[in-house]
Amino acid sequence: MSNQPQEAYEALLEFLYRVPVALLQVNGEGVIDMLNPMAAQLLMPLAPDGRLENLFTVLAPLAPWLPGKVHEFAPASGVVCESMRIDISHAAQQRHGPQLLSASIMKLDPQRFMVVLADATRDAEREQQTLMRELNDAARIDSLTRMPNRSAVRETLQRMIDQSPADNREFAVLFINCDRFKQVNDSYGNAVGDHILRMIAERLRLSLRRADLVGSSQNALQMAARFSGDEFVVILDGMLHGESASNVARRILSALESPYRIDSHEIVCSFSIGIVVPDASRADADVLLQDASIAMAEAKRAGGARHALFNSAMRERAQKRGGMEAELRQALLNRTLHVEYQPIVGLRQDLGGMPAVGAEALVRWRHPVKGGIPPMEFIGIAEECGLIGALGEFVLETACADFMEWTQRLGADAPTLLAVNLSRAQLADAGLVQRVQQILASTGMPSASLQLEVTESLAAQDDVVQQRLRDLKALGIKLALDDFGTGYSSLSCLHMLPVDTVKIDRSFVCQADISPHHRVLIEATVRVAHSLDMSTVAEGVETPAQAAVIRELQCDKGQGYLYSRPLGKLQFLAWIEERLRLAA
Ligand code: C2E
Ligand code: MG
Ligand code: MG
Fold it and tell me: Cα of 363 to ligand 1 centre, how many Å?
């Protein structure tokens, strides 16, 4: 009889040892005093060095807030228990194991805590399934991802707006868009694109969890939906302020940005997220969604792979852009855009004198009311609204036709090089190479005289862009790296880019004669370029002193106001004729 309590105690220990629940006892600093085999099995993949000594250390990258939580309720009297969720989907290497843990922490005494860990992956999925059942209506479900669709989003949002003044619920809307999804579809085909969309949906579902809902009621709603194409919407009910929504956005971004492995491909996508946290005026569902998408567009414009919180100045900017977009469309139709040419001159002694060796085509828009609008203000808009293809073709076709006219008029004295800028969105277009080829054929432009200019960040971008550039080169066209020095690639990467010419950015050239630092950078660029058989152009040469330096540093060509501002087609012809007359 006297052995009974001892036996019972041992049986309990045996039970705790074998039970399929992960149990740990830790002190206030997270040091693990005891853990059962299930806990070891769950936590081991998360401990990179294989050491399970301190729970806070093991979970630090995933739940940095854990020590704070524990300290928060350590002084409280009596037993306190709190449950929370920890997303481990990106840390644990196993693909089929738990993605989400639930952690319940119970205070035994101020220095001892019992922690129960369980796999909550299924719970999160069930929550989404429950939501889906509620929405169980084909008209509200997207057939590709099995997520709620646009109508479901609008209805749910409207319901929340209508209810919210009464119980003062707060919520946030996240508008998510893949930065270059069209490029993925163009390069890998629509089936792979669809597969990625389904994977995005799955990752979004998993990244939603009730632990995000600070101070919210239990029946708070979270919804991840496919809005259209590559646009997804997440509604977070019970979100108290923009900062917590931003935290969720950051987590979603990191969940979505790990590579998508499909067949033998490993595809990397970046995403932009716009967040709107409605103020007291609430507006209606469509306005909220529009605001969130405006914020998303701002995030994308800032380079993508980030989130932006909506503010009213963004709406004003969007309206201005919208107006400009309509006018630009009209300008393209009415042909009120035109092209100017800035001479590019040879600097090397062996070329003799200072003949024009080429021209860079620069697009111009003379607005009937606003006057001349600089390309930097409308190229971006043209890219966003899908007009860049038409705009780029217009510039290329006009420039090639004008170049051929000069060739006819000037014969052997005609310029031998025509530079035309290519924008980011043009390079993403799978039809680009074929259209360039058609324009060369229809205008009679010799491909060897055409130089297409791309910016540094673009050329370094990815395999698809690199292949596109090689396809262009295969037509016999020259490529130039524009604005060199302003992007993120360095001289050491130059050899990897398929370019023939490096254009040294104006920000270096304008300091060439006054800053030894800039002079050295130009000198190094020229040397490295020459060692790779690339030629160099100094951009934005404005003074004879700058010209003297770049000539001394062996730069091949110069371009800038010192030689000439951009000129109309006939003015350019006159400029060359004047030069020839002076040289004679
Ligand atoms: P970019 O290709 O680097 O063109 C050179 C820019 O520098 C032009 O500005 C030119 O007018 C300006 N510039 C030239 N010499 C000097 C100088 O001595 N001093 C100063 N301060 N500026 C000088 P622009 O025409 O305003 O064009 C700006 C940018 O817009 C271009 O930079 C190019 O990236 C883009 N762009 C222009 N036309 C087109 C086009 O047809 N298609 C595309 N995709 N982009 C274009
Ligand atoms: Mg250029
Ligand atoms: Mg430039």
Answer: 9
Reported as a single tens digit per residue, the pLDDT across 290-328 is 999 999 999 998 889 999 999 999 999 999 888 889 999
> Which ligand approaches the C-alpha of residue 484 most closely?
3
Select from 332, 365, 421, 502 the residue to mutate for testing ligand 1; criterion: most ligand atoms less than 8 Å from CB: 421
- Ligand 1 pocket, mutate which of 338, 362, 400, 563 (most atoms under 8 A from CB): 362
CA distance 533 to 499: 10
421 lines ligand 1 (CB under 6 A): yes
Q: Which structure tokens are listed for 533? A: 């058989």
For the chain, domains (ranges, CATH) are: 4-121 (3.30.450.20), 139-310 (3.30.70.270), 320-577 (3.20.20.450)
Q: Above 60 in pLDDT, residue 79?
A: no
Would you say residue 584 has pLDDT above 90?
A: no
pLDDT, tens digit (0-9, with 9 covering 90-100), for 389-406: 999 999 999 999 999 999
| The three-state (H, E, C) secondary structure of 348-383, written as one string | CHHHCCCCEEEEEEEEEEEECCCEEECHHHHHHHHH
Structure tokens at 507: 């920000």
Lowest mean pLDDT of 220-229, 342-351, 363-372, name the range: 342-351
